[in-house]
């Protein structure tokens, strides 16, 4: 057990006066992902309990909050813990061991925490999630976007070698789910009323670029880890690069139900079956 202290401090005194310490524990758990078609393949995730779930935990903070985080390695092999875009140095976690990470987040943002050991293999196998640092209490939704090549999971779980130049994923998920299960996830399906301000955090923990297309409404970019100069742009299609993040704002001007999907239609399939991939709908009431 080790204690690691990092204080990512920026000047933000009015906010810090109301800040709190958010204590969380996440567990590295290994089991299997079950696809929308019932196929299973080896998978690993950061979960909020010692029980395996195929979705990684979202850590949510307010601007100025301090994070007091324990990371417990329930796996039989060593892993690392890192937070992209921060000063936190990656830390090794031996099998059965844990580390404590303490950090202050003084500005709004969206970060990816992940295992960077043997990158990108451990991230590909599932170990990556999001940290959302909010500056408002608007309704918030969250997408952890990922793609999978099932045979590779089996190969990597058995210490095999893969050639990333031939990567051809066959399953595509949001928060570990594919259509139609995405709409059953209240943290993923965007719902609200006309005139509401709705926020969507997107983290791409896969190895491919995904271009998400919104029917019915434009979205405004509030935060972009890769292209900060894009903040303020209003679009109906937004690309998100591997290991990058976007915070989008939607203010619906009409009621209705409208699709949202990856513009690459291969990513809207599951093992070539359409539309069992990255597909959801926005549901807006009067």
UniProtKB/TrEMBL annotation:
<dbReference type="GO" id="GO:0016491">
    <property type="term" value="F:oxidoreductase activity"/>
</dbReference>
<dbReference type="InterPro" id="IPR011706">
    <property type="entry name" value="Cu-oxidase_C"/>
</dbReference>
<feature type="signal peptide">
    <location>
        <begin position="1"/>
        <end position="19"/>
    </location>
</feature>
<protein>
    <submittedName>
        <fullName>Multicopper oxidase domain-containing protein</fullName>
    </submittedName>
</protein>
<dbReference type="GO" id="GO:0005507">
    <property type="term" value="F:copper ion binding"/>
</dbReference>
<dbReference type="Pfam" id="PF07731">
    <property type="entry name" value="Cu-oxidase_2"/>
</dbReference>
<keyword id="KW-0732">Signal</keyword>
<dbReference type="InterPro" id="IPR008972">
    <property type="entry name" value="Cupredoxin"/>
</dbReference>
<feature type="domain" description="Plastocyanin-like">
    <location>
        <begin position="169"/>
        <end position="265"/>
    </location>
</feature>
